[in-house]
Design goal:
alpha+beta; Pdz3 Domain; 2-enoyl-CoA Hydratase, Chain A, domain 1; 4 domains; 6-stranded mixed beta sheet; 21 strands; about 20% strand; flat
C-alpha cells in the first residue's frame, strides 16, 4: 500500500487541487475565449481540508484496487488520464474538454496561420461530436457539412465513446487525403455519408469587398473567425472602405464559429456607438463586468449584420451588440447559441483542460446559450443551400423513392430544371429534368442519375451557392442598406 501511495502521490496532489479549487478561481489576466496565452487561474483559499483528504484517500483506494487486483497490468498514467477526463466529462459541458499532450498540441496548431484538415469547428453535445460551423470556403463547407450535423462514423468506424479530441485526430490528416464522415442531420430521415478531401486550411479571418447598387457603394466585411490579428485587419479594412466613401456597411459573420473574446470586444469598439455596452462577462457568483464601447463618433452610414445558425460565440457577441445598440438590423437566421467563455489551462506536462469559466451576456444582459440571437429581419436561403451532397451508391432511376431522389429534385429545381415534385419519388417528369440537365452539361441524356451526373449536379449547386444573386440574405441586407441610406 505504501508503494502505491508513493507512486501516486503526485497524481493525487493534482486531483486534490482540482477538487479543492471548487469556487476559488481568481482570474487575474483578462478574458480570452478558447486560448489563454499562458494566463492561469490563481487558487485562492481552499475549501474544507478534510473533504479534500477524504477525496484523495478515495482516489488512492480506487487506484490501489485497480493497479493491484485488476485482471491485467495497468499503466498508472493511463488511469490518471482517465480520471481527469472523467471529471471534465462529468460537467456535461460540450465546450469543456481534457486534452492530453498530443491533443493539446493539435489544438494549438489549429490556432496557427494554417493547418491541414477539413476546416470545421466541432463540440461534444449530448455525447455526440457535433459540427458548430464549417469554416467559410473550407473543404468541409464545399463538401456540404452543415452546422448541427452530428458525426456518428469516421471512415466507417463508429465513434461512440470517443472523446472529442480523439475524434478530431481521426478527422484531421494530410492534405490530399479523404475522410468519409457519416452524418446524422436533424433535417434528414437517413444517415448521410460525406467524403471530404483534406486540405491546408488558411487562417484568412477578414475578407473585404465593395458592391455598387442603385448608385450606392456598400462595403462588405466578412469575418471568418476571431483570431489574434483579426481586429487589426478589420480596423485596417474598415478605414480603407471609409476612405473610399461607402454609403453603408455589411458585417458578415455567417458560418463564423467564434474565437477570442477580447478580439470581438475590440471589433465592437470600432462600430458600436460610444457609451453602449458590447458584452458583459459573468462569473459563477453572478458578478458582472461590462465592456463599454469607446467609439468617439457614431458612424454616419447604416450598418447591417449578416448571421446564420453557424454564427457562434464571438460572432454572437458582435450580433447581439449590433442588435441591442438600437440602430442596427440583423439579417438572416437565428445564431448557434454559445454563451460561455473557455480558457485552455495548462496542467504542467503538456496536457490542458479547456474549461468554461464564465458566461457572456449581451449588451442588455441576455444569456443566449442554446437560444441564439434572433435576426431583426428573418431571411432564409434557397432550399438547395441546405441540402446534403448526392451520395449515389446505386443509380437513381425512374420509380425510386428515397431521400437521395428528394435531394436531387430540390437541386434540379434550384438549377432551373423542373422535376414537378420534391417528395423523393422519381417520376417521369423528374426523369425529363435529369435529361435536360445532362444535355446542358454535355452528359449522355439517359435520365438516370449515375455517379457522373450526381457529381455534375453537385458542382453546379456549389457554383449556384457561390453566386451572389442567389444569396437571399446578402441581397436583403443590400436593399436594407439602400433604404436606410436614403431615409
Amino acid at each position: 500500500m505504501n508503494n502505491i501511495r508513493g507512486k501516486t502521490l503526485a497524481f493525487a496532489i493534482i486531483i486534490s487541487l482540482l477538487i479543492g479549487a471548487s469556487g476559488t478561481y481568481v482570474f487575474l489576466n483578462g478574458l480570452d475565449n478558447q486560448v489563454g496565452d499562458d494566463k492561469q487561474p490563481v487558487l485562492a483559499e481552499t475549501v474544507d481540508a478534510k473533504e479534500d483528504l477524504d477525496a484523495v484517500t478515495k482516489f488512492l483506494s480506487a487506484m490501489e484496487l485497480i493497479t493491484e487486483r485488476y485482471v491485467d497490468e495497468v499503466d498508472e498514467k493511463v488511469l490518471l488520464e482517465g480520471a481527469i477526463a472523467g471529471m471534465v466529462n462529468a460537467l456535461e459541458d460540450p465546450y469543456s474538454v481534457y486534452m492530453d499532450e498530443e491533443a493539446a498540441s493539435q489544438f494549438m496548431e489549429a490556432l496557427d496561420s494554417h493547418f491541414e484538415g477539413i476546416g470545421a469547428e466541432v463540440s461534444m453535445t449530448n455525447g455526440q461530436v457535433t459540427i458548430v460551423s464549417p469554416i467559410r470556403d473550407s473543404p468541409a463547407e464545399k463538401a456540404g457539412i452543415m452546422p448541427k450535423d452530428r458525426i456518428v462514423e469516421i471512415d466507417g468506424e463508429n465513434i461512440e465513446g470517443l472523446t472529442l479530441y480523439d475524434a478530431v485526430l481521426k478527422i484531421r490528416g494530410e492534405k490530399g487525403t479523404n475522410v468519409v464522415l457519416t452524418i446524422d442531420r436533424p433535417t434528414s430521415s437517413e444517415l448521410i455519408e460525406i467524403s471530404v478531401k483534406r486540405d491546408v486550411i488558411p487562417h484568412e479571418t477578414v475578407r473585404v469587398k465593395t458592391m455598387d447598387h442603385k448608385d450606392k457603394t456598400i462595403g462588405v466585411l466578412e469575418i471568418t473567425s476571431f483570431s489574434n490579428d483579426t481586429s487589426e485587419r478589420f480596423e485596417r479594412e474598415l478605414l480603407a472602405l471609409e476612405q473610399q466613401g461607402i454609403d453603408g456597411l455589411i458585417i458578415d459573420v455567417r458560418g463564423n464559429p467564434g474565437g477570442l473574446l477580447n478580439v470581438a470586444e475590440e471589433i465592437g469598439k470600432l462600430v458600436i456607438p460610444g457609451g453602449k455596452p458590447i458584452v458583459q462577462i459573468e462569473n459563477r457568483d453572478g458578478e458582472k463586468v461590462r465592456y463599454i464601447s469607446s467609439l468617439e463618433e457614431e458612424k454616419d452610414y447604416p450598418i447591417i449584420g449578416l448571421i446564420d445558425n453557424g454564427s457562434a460565440s464571438a460572432s454572437e457577441i458582435i450580433a447581439g451588440a449590433l442588435k441591442e445598440a438600437g440602430n442596427y438590423d440583423l439579417v438572416g437566421e437565428t445564431t448557434f447559441g454559445k454563451g460561455t467563455v473557455q480558457q485552455a489551462l495548462k496542467l504542467g506536462d503538456g496536457s490542458e483542460i479547456k474549461l468554461s469559466l464564465f458566461k457572456w451576456l449581451t449588451s442588455d444582459g441576455n444569456f443566449i446559450n442554446e437560444v441564439g440571437v434572433e435576426p431583426t429581419v428573418k431571411v432564409s436561403q434557397p432550399e438547395f443551400f441546405y441540402l446534403p451532397p448526392l451520395h449515389v451508391k446505386e443509380d437513381l432511376t425512374h420509380d425510386m423513392l428515397n431521400e437521395q431522389v428528394r435531394s436531387a429534385q430540390h437541386m434540379l429545381k434550384g438549377l432551373g430544371f423542373e422535376p414537378d415534385r420534391t417528395d423523393g419519388y422519381f417520376s417521369k417528369q423528374t426523369e425529363k429534368a435529369v435529361m435536360a440537365f445532362q444535355n446542358t452539361n454535355n452528359l449522355e441524356a439517359t435520365g438516370v442519375i449515375d455517379e457522373d451526373t450526381a457529381s455534375a449536379i453537385h458542382e453546379a449547386i456549389v457554383e449556384a451557392v457561390r453566386d451572389e444573386k442567389n444569396d437571399h440574405q446578402l441581397q436583403a441586407a443590400i436593399e436594407l442598406i439602400i433604404k436606410q441610406s436614403e431615409s
